[in-house]
Design a protein that fits this description.
The chain is an alpha+beta fold and 417 residues long. Helices cover 36% and strands 21% of the residues. The protein has an eight-stranded mixed sheet with strand order 1-5-6-11-10-9-7-8. It binds zinc ion (2 copies). Keywords: Aminoacyl-tRNA synthetase, ATP-binding, Cytoplasm, Ligase, Nucleotide-binding, Protein biosynthesis.
Length: 417
């Protein structure tokens, strides 16, 4: 019998985890710089948490959720994204209120039943932030600045910020009508999905990736021309703050987000590093979501970054070689007694905080040296019969091939910087 990972999922193997850890550490550090604190919510939620917030008409809710009944018949869903969970948790724990400014971040796996392709998995990983309690345009700009900072610190290049305003409950209906009027005459030329979107939410047509739909989308009316006075003022202040913070951006009036809850500011960070246009993160305001999920009216904004894309880009740029998997010390031994002493030194090294290892496969000295090299050990300490007598042995620096005699008692002092 042979087992395989489920379609659309991947094992992240030990050779790759250092890269993932680097990315996760950089996320935590960067979010921390901007005073975001971590929140961890369950991997699954009651299905309603997602259907109501993300929107019944979205692709996610219609075809991509992993929904299942538990043993008591309750409908549960593996989280397809984290914002709804964060809102649920924030409301349940009374952290999201009109006068509390809450800044939180999350990291972890999300689940969507999609056709797997390069950089797109059914279990994928996101890092994201959410800020609740302010409609201040400076917060929008700070969040965009944060997302750019994050990708710069990760080592991504050729980044571009696309921003748009998708308006609010008050000005969106007129824009929807304008879109309907425009697309009505071209309906027969649009793809099946877009014809459905036309009925449910014409805004979403702007998000279609089909080449023949794009032709018509380019000519469609723009939201910026339909913003009401408040939304227009908010957008121009966001742009003003971005200028002030020296964040470069491009206004992209076709940009909408794939979820129903977005209002006003929508943004994406695109990396052109691998030739293609890769959106590495997307986000925006969702000023009505908290109220729609049963809370008071609390404005909010957030973004999520897809980590698989980042891994792909950094791997292609062979960033990986810089993050090697190294141990500090390998103790090579010849004979049982040497192994016992070696184990004693091994224990001491670990107690001192030096990562260290020894052979467990009865290998020859030569094979032990080879194993130490493969592990990327910084030093190898070689103990045989003579060394036992003298309580001293050769310490080999694997980087420089330099060797020197070091007594058992002095061994660990070599590692003190
Ligand atoms: Zn508006
Ligand atoms: Zn289409």
């Amino acid at each position: 019998m042979k087992y395989a990972v489920p379609r659309g999922t991947k094992d992240i193997l030990p050779d790759d985890t250092p890269l993932w850890q680097f990315i996760e550490d950089t996320c935590r550090e960067t979010f921390g710089l901007f005073n975001y604190r971590e929140i961890r919510t369950p991997i699954f939620e009651a299905t309603d948490v997602f259907t109501r917030s993300i929107g019944y008409t979205t692709d996610i809710v219609k075809k991509e959720m992993y929904t299942f009944p538990d043993r008591k018949g309750r409908s549960l869903t593996l989280r397809p994204e984290a914002t709804a969970s964060v809102v649920r948790a924030g409301l349940e724990n009374n952290l999201i209120t009109p006068d509390n400014l809450l800044k939180v971040y999350y990291l972890g796996p999300m689940f969507r039943y999609e056709r797997p392709q390069a950089g797109r998995q059914r279990q994928f990983h996101q890092a994201g932030v959410e800020a609740f309690g302010s409609a201040d345009p400076a917060l929008d700009a700070e969040m965009i600045q944060l997302s750019v900072k994050l990708f710069e610190r990760l080592g991504l290049k050729e980044l571009e910020v696309d921003i748009n305003s998708v308006g609010c409950k008050k000005c969106q209906p007129a824009y929807r009508e304008a879109l309907k009027k425009y697309f009505e005459s071209n309906l027969a030329n649009l793809c099946g999905d877009c014809r459905q979107r036309f009925e449910l939410n014409p805004l979403r047509i702007l998000d279609c990736k089909e080449a023949h739909c794009r032709k018509y989308i380019e000519q469609a009316p723009a939201m910026v021309d339909h913003l009401d006075a408040e939304c227009k003022a908010h957008f121009s202040q966001v742009v003003g703050w971005l200028d002030h913070l020296l964040v470069k951006y491009k206004i992209n009036d076709r940009l909408v987000r794939g979820l129903d809850y977005y209002t006003r500011t929508a943004f994406e960070i695109v990396s052109k590093q691998l030739g293609a246009q890769n959106a590495v993160c997307g986000g925006g305001r969702y000023d009505d979501l908290v109220e729609e999920m049963g809370g008071k009216s609390v404005p909010a904004i957030g973004f999520a970054a897809g980590l698989e894309r980042v891994v792909e880009i950094l791997k292609a740029e062979s960033r990986q070689s810089k993050i090697e998997n190294r141990i500090g010390l390998f103790i090579a031994t010849i004979g049982d007694e040497a192994r016992q002493v070696g184990f004693h030194l091994l224990t001491k090294a670990r107690e001192k905080g030096i990562s260290a290892d020894i052979d467990f496969q009865g290998k020859s000295l030569k094979a032990q040296m080879k194993a130490a090299d493969r592990l990327g050990a910084r030093y190898v300490y070689i103990i045989g019969d003579d060394e036992l007598k003298n309580k001293s042995a050769v310490l080999k620096n694997m980087g420089t091939a330099e060797q020197k005699e070091v007594s058992f008692g002095e061994l660990l002092s070599v590692f003190v910087k």
